[in-house]
Design goal:
Length: 300
């Protein structure tokens, strides 16, 4: 089995023999159902799944009910992937074991399989409702294109040009005038061929925002036009991120000038100090603006 990299995951958990993970998180277990093990490009799952099954034994019984669809899955090359992703959702060590972190297949994938397998609609699972699945463009979801082959496993996503990158300080923070500054927990990372890197996660705090509205707890996508980041971003980790936006497309962006630092209490104290200094600077600038002394301009 060749080595693979999950672009969705930033692959902090791969070993050198393909998708072979260690099991640091008790809720993850290795996939043992042969049909799904062959087609899914990840090897860890979690329960309960999207259908409420609490074990692979129960999940396997359910999968067998849809044997006709599976046996005729040549109607769509992704039919088995779609079915298995419902019963055996991907498990990411380090991601909180909550219902909202059960990642669903993407709506576009579901719709494509439904179209391809139109002749088999008598066997279509009633629980697979494409219209209820998340859109790839605005939510966290999985699809086969999110997994690609690579020659070596990676332990993260790194920005090019890290050497000589200046340490973040107040002068850098104020001079770059970021559109947004947030505390951000990375959930998934995906490299899209010819389109750069997409970082998906959840907002913990909002320190600054501009035209694109951001709020605490929001699931958010940040896009980079390159395939690199600095320092390493890893899934399940929290960062202070500052960057710019594409207001016309309501997108948050990452670039080589973005602020990215691993989150800790020291970072929190630092950003609060920067905000106080920034506020004092605005007040000082305001005092420098000359005021008119009783003069008014003639309206005519």
């Amino acid at each position: 089995m060749y080595s693979m990299q999950v672009l969705l995951l930033a692959i902090a958990f791969l070993a050198t023999n393909g998708f072979q993970f260690h099991l640091p998180h008790h809720s993850c277990e290795k996939i043992s159902i042969p049909l799904c093990h062959r087609v899914l490009p990840y090897n860890l799952t979690r329960f309960p799944n999207l259908l409420g099954d609490r074990s692979q034994v129960l999940a396997n019984r359910s999968i067998q009910r849809y044997g006709p669809l599976v046996k005729h899955s040549n109607c769509s090359k992704h039919a088995v992937f779609l079915l298995c992703s419902f019963y055996l959702p991907i498990c990411i060590p380090g991601i909180d074991d909550t219902e909202e972190n059960v990642f669903k297949p993407c709506r576009s994938l579901c719709e494509q399989v439904r179209t391809d397998c139109a002749a088999l609609m008598d066997y279509w699972p009633s629980f697979v409702k494409c219209e209820e699945l998340p859109e790839y463009s605005d939510a966290v979801c999985i699809q086969p294109e999110s997994f690609i082959s690579v020659s070596k496993p990676s332990r993260g996503v790194d920005y090019d040009g890290c050497q000589g990158r200046p340490q973040a300080d107040y002068n850098l923070y104020i001079n770059r005038q970021y559109d947004y500054v947030i505390k951000f927990k990375v959930v998934l990372i995906e490299r899209v061929e010819n389109k750069g890197t997409i970082v998906r996660g959840r907002v913990g705090r909002v320190f600054k925002q501009n035209n694109v509205t951001i709020h605490k707890g929001q699931r958010l996508t940040i896009r980079s036009n390159t395939n690199s980041t600095c320092p390493s971003l890893g899934t399940g980790k929290v960062f202070l991120i500052g960057g710019y936006e594409n207001a016309s497309r309501a997108e948050l962006l990452l670039s080589s000038t973005s602020l990215i630092e691993a989150w800790n209490e020291k970072i929190l104290r630092k950003i609060r100090r920067w905000q106080r200094m920034e506020k004092k600077g605005r007040k000082k600038e305001g005092r420098r603006v000359p005021h008119s002394r009783g003069r008014t301009r003639d309206a005519n």
